[in-house]
Design goal:
Elements: E1 4-14, E2 18-25, E3 28-36, E4 52-59, H1 65-68, E5 72-76, E6 84-88, E7 99-102, E8 104-106, E9 114-116, H2 118-134, E10 138-145
Parallel strand pairs: 1-10, 6-7
Antiparallel strand pairs: 1-2, 2-3, 3-7, 4-5, 4-10, 5-6, 8-9
Length: about 150
């Protein structure tokens, strides 16, 4: 019987520059996520992925795998996006549509938000999610857009 891990990203803050959300594993809070901003028309490297359901897998990343020493959590089958990864970083300057993980968030209304303690968040979340994938579990990510002002 195939087991399934459910990741849920609740986006709760959006500015003209970035988006901040909460990432849950099977209903339990894991960490904050920072992404690029919403755009009605995609701009390469400057747009968050659309809300929806996606599969997460481990893939080799030429940019991150040599630096991190392992395959990277990748969000698959995102319409009009490729190479969407879950990795370390602090501001929207560190992401090209990817999901950055952090233990704390510094929210800026109308300005630029940042997440903090990203390496700690990654080091906590990666073994849980990667462990499920390597043991043969299906890992699904649901991205939910909350109402924002």
């Amino acid at each position: 019987t195939e087991k399934k891990m459910n990741l849920t990203l609740y986006r709760f803050h959006a500015s003209p520059f970035d988006t901040v959300g909460l990432l849950y594993i099977d209903g339990v809070f894991g960490c904050f996520v920072l992404e690029d901003e919403y755009r009605a028309v995609k701009v390469a490297n400057e747009t968050r992925i659309p809300a929806g359901h996606y599969r997460v897998a481990l893939q080799y990343s030429p940019k991150f795998s040599p630096r991190y020493g392992h395959d990277i959590l990748s969000v698959l089958n995102v319409p009009n996006f490729t190479g969407i990864r879950i990795h370390k970083g602090n501001t929207e300057a560190d992401t090209s549509g990817c999901l950055l993980l952090g233990l704390n968030a510094d929210i800026s209304h109308g300005g630029r938000s940042k997440i903090i303690r990203s390496s700690e968040a990654y080091d906590y979340m990666y073994p849980i999610i990667a462990g499920a994938i390597t043991s043969g579990d299906s890992v699904e990510l649901e991205v939910v857009d909350e109402k924002t002002r």
